[in-house]
Amino acid sequence: MNASDFLLNLNRVLGISPIDKKGILRWLHSLWCLGLLLYIWTNSIRRCVEFKGEIPTIEKILYLLEFPGNMSVIGFLAFHAVLHLPSLQEVELEIHRMIKRLDSKAVQMIYKKHDQRTLQLMVISIIFHGLCAVVDIITCKFEFWTTWISNSIYNLPGLMMSLGLLQYALPLHFLWLLLDEIRRALEELKWQQRPPGGITKLDARYESAFAVLVDAGGGYSVRLEEMRSTCHHLDLLHKKLLSRFGTFLILNFANSLASFCVELYLVFNFFENPQLEESVLLIYRLLWLLMHGGRIWFIMAVNEQILEKKCQLFRLINELEVCSSHLERTINRFLLQLQTSLAQPLEACGIVPLDTLALGGFFGVLMAIVIFLIQIGLGNKSLMGVALNKSNWLYI
């Protein structure tokens, strides 16, 4: 069993991926998905109702937003797992068909790299959430029932969302590998266009070498046209993936941003008045900051890698030798297609641009919310100080 199959089976156990079987097995899996979803929703709602922290209302709302955020993201994944919508399967099958058209060596290399990437991301996710579970157990002082409930409303949904995010990122990695194969083919084509060693444009033999290049121009045009068609098909598949996961990405962005703000504010409060007995809780909060910040960065980074690969293709095409009018038209069509693709950055539901340049906007919103919470905290402390002074004065 390779890493992709293991990840798929793990997602099915967690109720966030559909099962290929039909009949009674699909019904049983659907009941399992709904039961697991209902279990997480019940514990999360009970946590919101029973929360009795004495904190300002706005801080309490932001803190409790994580629970409906988790519920909505898990509900989205379970919904698609139960309905078994064919859209994602169709995209993956089309990607595999495109890979199979390559030569056997390239096919083996692509699947090997993809399997390594899948294993790497899966192991990182499992180890990270395992570490969070251990810290949670220590924080709850090894009380079994308290630890069980805490992990059910924090780490179990966290693991499900992290692995659900891989359902979007791993098909994109296939697209990146296919674009990288096109880049390699372009470099090979560029190398073939080089004149024999030692011949320059001032050399008498250059004209004969260029004539040979002109004769080969028709073959180059066919290869470039195939590459252009493949790039266009990859763009369409990328858009299909984004339309399938757009809502999921928006929910992840909103949930991670709200949770990151609250956790950063609570870390600030700890360092304002550090207490040794809360050091384990500080580690837990730092891990949570790493998880939510990592999700926002990861979503944008996997899309930016594809944009960077297209920029490399653009550069390589510009460096090709134009030796015929037909080849020139083919190159211009390819460049125009890439330029159009790069000029229209992908966005999640038309709201959030999927580019790391947008992290500046997230950082600005983050700092605004954190500063707002700090101001509220300072204002409450000032009011408490005034109240204490008044009570002492009245007592005297």
From TrEMBL:
Any single biological process term in GO: sensory perception of taste
Source organism, top-level taxon: Eukaryota
Membrane topology: Multi-pass membrane protein
Example of a GO cellular component annotation carried by this entry: plasma membrane
Predominant location category: membrane
A Pfam match: 7tm_7
Family from the record: Belongs to the insect chemoreceptor superfamily. Gustatory receptor (GR) family.
Protein name: Gustatory receptor
